Target: Dimethyl sulfone monooxygenase SfnG
Amino acid sequence: MSQDTIKFAYWVPNVSGGLVVSKIEQRTDWGIDYNRKLAQIAEAAGFDYALSQVRFTAGYGAEYQHESVAFSHALLAATTRLKVIAAVLPGPWTPSVLAKQIATIDQLTGGRVAVNIVSGWFKGEFTAIGEPWLEHDERYRRSEEFITALKGIWTTDNFTFRGDFYRFHDYTLKPKPLQQHPEIFQGGSSRAARDMAARVSDWYFTNGNTVEGIKAQVDDIQAKAAANNHKVKVGVNAFVIARDTEEEARAVLAQIIDQADPEAVNAFGDAAKQAGKSSPEGEGNWAKSSFEDLVQYNDGFKTNLIGTPQQIAERIVALKAVGVDLVLAGFLHFQEEVEYFGRKVLPLVRELEQRKAAAKTAAVA
Ligand SMILES: Cc1cc2nc3c(=O)[nH]c(=O)nc-3n(C[C@H](O)[C@H](O)[C@H](O)COP(=O)(O)O)c2cc1C
Model:
């Protein structure tokens, strides 16, 4: 397979309640047995990555939450090729502890671990665990120092760093990770999130959006990254509803929204919109999300990967054409739907990618 293929990740359901805030039946379980099997199904289906979630308290019904780094390690131990992205929050984690944890996990798993640096949006959670809550752009200033320190510790001996949040003095980590440096993902939509991605992150994750909305974000980030002489790749969230007919897929979406839990959605919306609005330019995640968008708490319906395998494959290739490198997928019934996606959607994506590449070569010749 050529290097120029779009990559796929799935959300690890390591918190209870699935990925939609709805009372619809979900055959998804947050426990380890279900998740080990899911990781194996995803690996066989052709997924490249699994993304865990970091959560310390319930927020939108996610009553139970497994810790993300420990859980990611368990999934790596149950697989052989899949990369698992452990989500962490600067604040509760320090770069020294995380650098060491990840170096060890990387050594134990043949170099397959990555991290997602989450800057935080949920003030109640920070208050509950006694962590100071910084204002929006300060959270990103801290995250950027966190990432700079992480990379420094992983790649340099006698690392010295003097920041406003973290300090290191002649520090040498041994052993270092097996990979030169494990990939660093980061999420967010605000100006501060994008600017940080364009300076230090390997991957930028954004909430779901239309192709036009994503294109605007990608163009903005890539222009800034080029000016900084930095390379960053882009992943987009999508809640996938793939069914044999479009009617079936649309009916599932309608049921999810009809059975949405308004109290939980509104509680989440209030906390999330506070986070979005609190970025100075008001462009943060969720700043413009409607009630329906919020039922999938990372705006996953907006990406519109809802329909037949053919329709979904075409939309994925359209995302790739505007500069998306990875689709991060959520599902209603994870195990069954990840398997279906691998069997029905992924081969069509690869076929379309090959056709496009062949057409390009023919045009050049
Ligand atoms: C794909 C993706 C995954 C995320 N995972 C988590 C998570 O596990 N835990 C969490 O608290 N926030 C998570 N976030 C939230 C972001 O890190 C960030 O705090 C939020 O998007 C608000 O950012 P903004 O105000 O810069 O837009 C995630 C965001 C995205 C796009």
About this structure: The chain has one domain: 7-364.
